Amino acid sequence: MNMGSPPGLTSPLNMSLEEKMEVDNRSIYVGNVDYGATAEELEAHFHGCGSINRVTILCNKYDGHPKGFAYIEFGDRDSVQTAMAMDDSLFRGRQIKVMPKRTNRPGLSTTNRPPRGRGNFRGARGNEQRLLC
């Protein structure tokens, strides 16, 4: 659910790290968003904070259901500080969490780690348990 971007803005996929950081400095994270909320409702809730460029409600890629959080991009940085005053406000009967959006940095992903969990290693303890059973 994305309200889209105003004319002239570049797609986030085509932006440099510096451009992404500049956009992120004008954006907030909104947590504990009601699953039935719309981008229009979020825009109305934050309308007093400043000019809003984009409202993005993230959805699960497997079933399409909302994940319960959103990002709001403002036209200027000062709006982020104004929006921070909305932390713990009620939106659709839920107390929302408002924080400045952080910039994801390349190479700091948790998906780049080797797999964890059970591998092919079988220690002595595993063998002992098999012998005892």
From TrEMBL:
Q: Where is this region: Disordered?
A: 102-126
Q: Which domain of life is it from?
A: Eukaryota
Give start-end positions of Low complexity composition bias: 112-126
**Pfam families from the UniProt entry:** RRM_1 (PF00076)
Q: Which Gene3D superfamilies match?
A: 3.30.70.330
Give residue ranges for domain RRM: 26-103
Quote the PROSITE patterns the UniProt record gives: RRM
Q: Which UniProt key words apply to this protein?
A: RNA-binding
Q: Tell me if RNA-binding is a UniProt keyword of this record.
A: yes
The cross-references to InterPro entries, in alphabetical order and at most eight, read:
Nucleotide-bd_a/b_plait_sf, RBD_domain_sf, RRM_dom
- Put simply, this protein is called RRM domain-containing protein
Species source reads Molorchus minor
